[in-house]
Automatic annotation (TrEMBL):
Residues 96-105 are annotated as: SAM motif I. Residues 97-191 form the Methyltransferase type domain. The keyword S-adenosyl-L-methionine applies. This is 2-methyl-6-phytyl-1,4-benzoquinone methyltransferase. One of its GO terms (biological process) is methylation. InterPro entries: Erg6_SMT_methyltransf, Methyltransf_11, PiNMT-like, SAM-dependent_MTases_sf. It comes from the Bacteria. Residues 183-192 are annotated as: SAM motif III. One of its GO terms (molecular function) is S-adenosylmethionine-dependent methyltransferase activity. Residues 156-164 are annotated as: SAM motif II. Keywords: Methyltransferase, S-adenosyl-L-methionine, Transferase. Belongs to the class I-like SAM-binding methyltransferase superfamily. gTMT family.
């Protein structure tokens, strides 16, 4: 019953917000500059940070406890990916590169709980500024503005490379993989999580699914989506990869994040209201895309891929 009521409520909001969305310029991907501009804006208006905390990525909801707090689920996701990928086997002081670090939430966890020396990079100068503001003295994190497709580091500079939900913004997935693996030392660890489509070559999208994918691409500056299988093959055939690539679909563990990301606005209404009337409009603008993401992931049109390999 609750799900039916929520679905009806969400549909009403969707239709209302959609009328607004289509009157506002979309965030269509043009270049890395459009990605930077979008994240600069999201960071400067502080709406996402107020609602979701220091982690913009999805959360991890264990099978035995699906009612975990949204912000705690985001922290849990970091620990689960660390454990699954083997990063917890690295000694303290290991050099970690966080590609697409956002405002540094994951970087700080990696430094605080695992004793790593973390370098976070993002295309957004506003995110770097905010990440530095949020990082306490003594935390072994540093943040730089850098394009993930042109990393300014020597080959083999890092003991591990970490990236969460950044690859969907890359217009060249092979170059994205190549730059990460190039900067990874031989025997180092790659831990990556990303939004993927299903295999659209083997299972072409319907007309409606094409419309959904178009909206998901154009509202959140994504150039294209590829499948877990496609990106796994990109990693497997890379010259800097040891060849043993493990990938999984974590849809089951992450899907509750979509409804929770909307419900946070109900749980924390003052987080929006204190930012002024414009914040309300901005928050409503995101609801249609979140609902479409939820539908796409639940139906298997989209998949949450996680990947691990050794350099």
């Amino acid at each position: 019953m609750f799900e039916l009521i929520f679905t009806f409520f969400a549909l009403v909001l969707f239709l209302f917000a959609l009328s607004i969305v289509w009157r506002i310029n979309s965030r269509k991907y043009i270049s890395s500059g459009t990605v930077a501009s979008a994240y600069d804006a999201w960071t400067q208006d502080k709406l996402l940070e107020r609602l979701w905390g220091e982690h913009i990525h999805l959360g991890f909801y264990p099978s035995e406890r699906r009612d975990i707090d949204f912000r705690k689920a985001k922290v849990q996701f970091v620990h689960e990916l660390v454990k699954w990928s083997g990063l917890d086997k690295l000694p303290k002081g290991s050099r970690i590169l966080d590609v697409g670090c956002g405002i540094g939430g994951s970087s700080r966890i990696l430094a605080k709980y695992y004793g790593f020396n973390v370098t976070g990079i993002t295309i957004s100068s506003a995110q770097v500024k905010r990440a530095r503001e949020l990082t306490p003295l003594g935390c072994n994190c540093n943040f730089q503005v850098m394009d993930a497709l042109n990393l300014k580091f020597e080959d083999g500079s890092f003991d591990a490379v970490w990236s969460v939900e950044a690859g969907a913004h890359m217009n060249d997935k092979a170059k994205f993989a190549d730059e990460m693996l190039r900067t990874l030392r031989p025997g180092g660890y790659l831990a990556l999580a990303d939004w993927n489509s299903r295999d659209l070559r083997s299972y072409p999208p319907s007309f409606f699914e094409k419309l959904v994918l178009k909206q998901l691409l154009e509202q959140w500056v994504h150039p294209n989506f590829i499948s877990i299988k496609e990106f796994t093959n990109i990693l497997r055939t890379n010259k800097n990869s040891a060849g043993l690539i493990v990938s999984e679909n974590w849809n089951f563990y992450t899907n509750p994040s979509w409804y929770d990301s909307i419900i946070e606005g109900i749980r924390r209404p003052f987080a929006i209201l204190t930012l002024g009337p414009l914040a309300i409009v901005k928050s409503i603008r995101e609801i249609p895309t979140i609902l479409l993401m939820n539908w796409a992931f639940r139906k298997g049109l989209m998949e949450f891929g996680v990947y691990k390999c050794r350099g």
